[in-house]
Amino acid sequence: MKRSVDERNRLNDLTNKEWLQQTKSFWISKAPPRDELKLQHPATFSEHDIERLIRLFTRSGQTVLDPFVGVGSTLIACLRTGRRGIGIELMPQWCELAEQRLAAECDNSSSPQDDIQILQGDAGSKLADLDSESIDFVVTSPPYWRILEKNGQKVAAERASRDLPTNYGDEIQNLGGIEDYDLFLGKLGEIFAECARVLRAKQYMAVIVSDFRHGPQYYLYHADLANEIQQRGMVLKGVIALLQDSKNLYAYGIPYAFVPNIHHQQILIFQKPESD
Ligand SMILES: C[S@@+](CC[C@H](N)C(=O)[O-])C[C@H]1O[C@@H](n2cnc3c(N)ncnc32)[C@H](O)[C@@H]1O
């Protein structure tokens, strides 16, 4: 049967029926096992989930930006969906792995790699080089404060026992190394203000984060970050819970206290308002 896209639809290439399926406030994450290169990075997201976001928020051939691109998952999703992609990453070792993963992906597909760019450096300064209103969709997952630096985390201990890196690396501009939570949020807010500048009016930005525990306290990171970004002019349009039902369960706290296994992320969806 012929797919018919509503002629009023300027956002994506989905039929109205396909679009409807994407409006649920929860999605079940689809995350196949990570390849050896991807496994090196301690905090990646799934290309499948990002492909779904890209198809919802862009049309074929449009440009997607990820200011914290890590080992390039967003750029691989761009190749698979026929979008142009720009990724920024501070750490040279993750840029190198992203290049290798993209090359391997291109061997497996006919997509040209010319439409994909990796910019190595601090997101704040690299974003300043991009033109205003040149991007159609921003999708990213920023550092979760200093959470990877915490000692005694079960996931980190497991990775260390397999000789895998447990943090992003030592660079003074690493946002994941900032001690003070409010200072960290402010710095991140400045980067998202730049993302808003380069985004075209009426287009969307998806920020994927999870809440976390630190010491005795539970941090509503998704809410704190949403406030920070809204203060910079973006409008929060919704939050999708991304359910990660296949993660390992750890017996935190048992049999003394309630300590949750956090098995979902929040996808914060913002829209850039029209300029007056
Ligand atoms: C949550 S990870 C993103 C992983 C990515 N989604 C993937 O699947 O590979 C956040 C990334 O932000 C990077 N980062 C930290 N501070 C940065 C900065 N100031 N500018 C650019 N990247 C930064 C870290 O090195 C890390 O790779």
Shape: globular
CATH H-tier superfamily: Vaccinia Virus protein VP39
Query: Order of SSEs, N→C?
Result: HEHHEHEHEHEHHEEEHEE
Number of helices: 9
- Could you tell me the radius of gyration in angstroms? 19 Å
Largest sheet: 8 strands, mixed
Q: Total number of β-strand segments?
A: 10
Give the uncertain stretches in residue-range form: none
- Widest sheet, order of strands: 1-9-10-6-5-2-3-4
Instruction: Predict the CATH topology.
Output: Rossmann fold
Average of the residue pLDDT scores: 94
Tell me, what is the CATH class?
Alpha Beta
What structural class is derived from the secondary structure elements? alpha/beta
Q: Beta-sheet strand percentage?
A: 15-25%
Highlighted features:
single chain; 276 residues; Rossmann fold; 9 helices; 10 strands; 32% helix; 21% strand; binds S-adenosylmethionine
